[in-house]
Design brief:
14 helices; Dihydrodipicolinate Reductase, domain 2; G6P_DH_NAD-bd; about 20% strand; 2 domains; Rossmann fold; NADP binding; nine-stranded mixed sheet; alpha/beta; G6P_DH_AS
Length: about 475
């Protein structure tokens, strides 16, 4: 199956922080793949901007090395590189001062989309926005892309929103969460709103509970200093898992429109119940035979920051009241997996007797690594000798269903092209970000006022035992991480 490619309009894309890890690992490779797929028009240009003094040729050599380092066997060949590199330029720039801005402004064209990607620390968002205004680079066709973390709490998120609003309209601000660019995450909306047989069951009457799991095998690595100030709650729950929860719980928007979709997500966040301390478990990975502990990796022996978190979340609205959502995410776990599991209730009466080996229907949406869906249903086990029931999986792998040759784009490929198109559906709105922090802040504040530390867990496990107790108290169990 061949994916349909729709070219975008000509654009000038400036990547601030173009020599940084995110640009080298994700942004520039994503742009090269979109170029290779024929999605970039002849008039597209990409300008790297960073503090480092380097020539255009030096920048191109750096990008080429990044392709080899991060793409491996999927790196573009010499011909594609040469064609892509014709689109590249570089400007050395001082985000906090005036150096380089006149040169950058001189390269901007008047008749094309201007996109500025802030692949930098949040402390530079304001200075960059101010300089774009000072040097007259903001036009009606200007868009900015800002990476997380968008604030560290409600107060800082509001301050960032206020700063950006001084120079840009909300329709020009693209707060990127790469989870929303994943093909399977977008499929959540297709599964829910393009298939009528799910809708009558998608409520507290028929759904017993929902589990959202994002497990990683890696530790914090080189992100130690950042992660010690952030933790899993700020780094993962407030944004990534919150977005997955919203897509699962939201009402159908009146149409597939950026504000219509985000309006419904915002309603979910406003309906979230406050989380009681007893419904939160924090964990921290210990040292393993070949791995350092979390405390060692963040270089803080007394750290009370969590590398794992599990929560029980309630939603107080007509659709979901009484159905808990269990969220968990952590590092140094048994395997790398992201999935959403919708556990349906048992039938009100079993005609096969009380001793039948009954298992509830389960819909599992796999986000990574094997994108697809599984629906577990009860059937009769083949053979004579009575009505014996068996739980089987109706399994669909995207790779198998759509063809092994189908390239599933990286999240950044989709999201950057959406910026150029001016489509904000998969980006967070300012009030949505603030609402998420307003729900998150009291949970974090309760920890800061407590002497309790995260529970320790072994690397390569499923997390701390306390997380098992959290769900076992409700006579439920986590899906195995494997």
């Amino acid at each position: 199956m061949v994916a349909r490619v729709i070219p975008v309009d000509p654009f000038d894309l400036v990547i601030f922080g173009a020599t940084g890890d995110l640009a080298r690992r994700k942004i520039l490779p994503a742009l090269c793949r979109r170029f290779g797929e024929g999605q970039m028009p002849e008039g597209a240009r990409i300008i790297g901007a960073a503090r480092s003094e380097m020539s255009r040729d030096d920048f191109i050599e750096m990008v080429s090395q990044a392709f080899d380092e991060f793409l491996g066997a999927q790196a573009p060949d010499a011909a594609q590189r040469a064609a892509f590199f014709e689109r590249l330029d570089y400007v050395a720039i001082d985000a906090m001062g005036d150096d380089g801005w006149t040169t950058l402004a001189g390269q901007m064209r008047e008749d094309v989309v201007r996109a500025f990607y802030f692949s930098v620390a949040p402390s530079l968002f304001g200075p960059l926005a101010a300089n774009l205004g000072k040097f007259r680079m903001i036009t009606p066709q200007t868009r900015i892309v800002v990476e997380k973390p968008f604030g560290n709490d409600l107060q800082t998120a509001r301050a960032l929103n206020h700063t950006l609003a001084e120079f840009f309209d909300e329709t020009q601000i693209y707060r990127i969460d790469h989870y929303l660019g994943k093909e399977t995450v977008q499929n959540l909306m297709a599964v829910r709103f393009a298939n009528i047989f799910f809708e009558p069951l998608w409520n507290a009457r028929f759904v017993d509970h929902v589990q959202i799991t994002v497990a990683e095998t890696v530790g914090v690595g080189g992100r130690g200093p950042y992660y010690d100030k952030s933790g899993a709650m700020r780094d993962m729950v407030q944004n990534h898992l919150m977005q997955l929860l919203c897509l699962m719980a939201m009402e159908p928007p009146y149409k597939f429109d950026p504000d219509a979709v985000r309006d419904e997500k915002l309603k979910v966040i406003h309906a979230l119940d406050p989380v009681a301390p007893a419904d939160v478990v924090r964990g921290q990975y210990a040292a393993g035979p070949e791995t350092a502990s979390f405390a060692d990796e963040v270089e803080n022996a007394n750290t009370a920051t969590e590398s794992y978190i599990a929560l029980k979340v309630g939603i107080s609205n007509w659709r979901w009241k009484g159905t808990p959502f269990y969220l968990r995410t952590g590092k140094r776990l048994r395997s790398r997996v992201s999935e959403i599991a919708v556990a349906f209730r048992d039938p009100p009466h079993s005609i096969f007797g009380e001793d039948a080996p009954w298992k509830a229907n389960l819909l599992v949406i796999r986000l990574q690594p094997d994108e697809g869906m599984t629906l577990k249903v009860m059937i009769k086990e083949p053979g004579p000798g009575g009505m014996r029931l068996k739980n089987v999986a109706l399994d669909m792998s995207f790779a198998e269903a759509l063809g092994d040759d189908l390239h599933i784009p990286d999240a950044y490929e989709r999201l950057i092209m959406d910026v150029i198109r001016g489509n904000q559906t998969l980006f967070m709105r300012g009030d949505e970000v603030e609402a998420a922090w307003a729900w998150t802040d009291p949970i974090i504040a309760a920890w800061q006022g407590s002497a309790d530390k995260p529970a320790m867990y072994d690397p390569g496990s499923s997390g701390p035992d306390e997380a098992l107790k959290l769900i076992h108290m409700d006579n439920r169990s986590w899906r195995e991480i494997r």
